[in-house]
Amino acid sequence: MTTPTANFMTVGNNSPAKTFLDSNFRYTLFPIFYGLVFPLGLIANCYALYVLHHMRECKAMNEIRIYMTNLTVADLLFVAALPFWIDYYKNKGDWKSPEPLCAITGSLFFINTYCSILFLAVISINRYWAVTRPLVAASSDCWKRGAIISALIWVITLAASITYLTNTGIQKDNNISRCFEGYQNEEESKINTVAATHFIIIALFFLVFLMVIVCNILIARALLKQPISQPRGSTGKRPGGTKRRALRMLCTVIGVFVICFLPHHVVQGPWVLSVLHMRKEWKNTTHQRLNDAHQITLMLMGLNCLLDPLVYCFATTMFRKYIQNHFTKELP
Questions:
Q1: Name one GO biological process term (predicted).
Q2: How many CB atoms lie within 10 A of CB 96?
Q3: 159 in the Ramachandran plot: left (φ > 0), alpha (ψ -120 to 50) or beta?
Q4: Which residues contact 229 (CB under 8 A, 6 or more apart)?
Q5: Per DSSP, what are the bridge partners of residue 176?
Q6: What is the pLDDT of residue 292?
Q7: Is residue 74 within 8 Å of residue 115, measured between CB atoms?
């Protein structure tokens, strides 16, 4: 979530003087990082959307294609907001764009993060269902189920992001307009509510992450029980190759969680306690380190729009084969 940084210093007789504590390295690192993610993410996800559109006639993968398409749209929304964040960090954390855009870009960051988490989770469940209950999965109304689940995910994330959209998100700090920063100015009466909201989100993330881990362990167990050396089936596919691709897919999904989302949600709890000044015994160096770590985890979350297309390649053979055939035709 785009609520990067605030901290507290003590002066005089240990009375807290709440001031904004910055991590200055982000003003150099973030514009470079987002400057690379923006074109790469735009190209990768537009191409993924193009491939998914041309695979719409394949009924066998209707459900997972719906999830992939929605995940790609969520990634493109995040990518669309990156130029504003690049400008924000180039201006040393001073929001120069129209104030309503702060609320919109903050919402897009939140929506992308939790849509990605939930769609990756349902992709894992879908693959578990396909591996362990292939006949039941094939006989059910996949398209309708995919559409309903996708709609629910969007409703949940959009409802959760309303708090971002209902205010500008701008906090003034010595004539500097901070976008979704400045928790040090939170009213005392709201501190517990703000902290509880963050910890509920953290708990829900770990619940989803546990579900993804369990699904992928069960997929791996089911696949490993199948013998690798089998003759080609009637479709010409070698079961061993299918198993290896499936194992790569589940490793990729878990990798996206571990690299992009897990660090943020591990750091988020202590960081919230720090910025809300709920741990007065912590030293200023502890606050600074937590803030620096929080900035790094925000950056890592931006990688997910580049890693998600890898999930598509390993999740379905048809997606990968379409790309291979497309480039084979294009090359002389």
A1: chemotaxis
A2: 10
A3: alpha
A4: 240
A5: 173
A6: 95
A7: yes
Supply the CATH number for residue 139's domain.
Answer: 1.20.1070.10
Give the number of C-alpha atoms closer than 13 A to the C-alpha of residue 109, restricted to the C-beta side. 25
DSSP state of 108: H
Contact 188, 21 (CB under 8 A): no
The Cα-based distances of 51 to 95, 113, 321 in angstroms read 37, 23, 10
Range of the domain at 122: 22-326
Residue 291 maps to a domain: yes
Q: What is the pTM of this model?
A: 0.85
Residue 87 belongs to a domain? yes
3-state secondary structure of 59: helix
Least confident of 50-64, 188-202, 232-246: 232-246
| Distance between CA atoms of residues 183 and 3, nearest Å | 8
Domain assignment present for residue 12? The answer is no
Within a domain: 52: yes
* Distance from C-alpha of 180 to C-alpha of 201, rounded to nearest angstrom: 17
Average confidence (pLDDT) over 151-162: 95
For residue 62, give both structure tokens: 């209707």
Tell me how many domains the chain contains.
1
Token duo for residue 293: 């770590």
Beta strands in the chain (DSSP E): 7-11, 15-19, 170-173, 176-179
The burial of 309, by beta-carbon neighbours within 10 Å (0-12 exposed, 13-18 middle, 19 or more buried), is given as: buried
User: Are the CB atoms for 126 and 64 separated by under 8 Å?
Assistant: yes
Q: Which residue has the tokens 């900035």?
A: 295
User: How far, in Å, CA of 4 to CA of 21, rounded?
Assistant: 10
Residues 312 and 68: beta-carbon distance below 8 Å = yes
What confidence score (pLDDT) does residue 60 get? 54
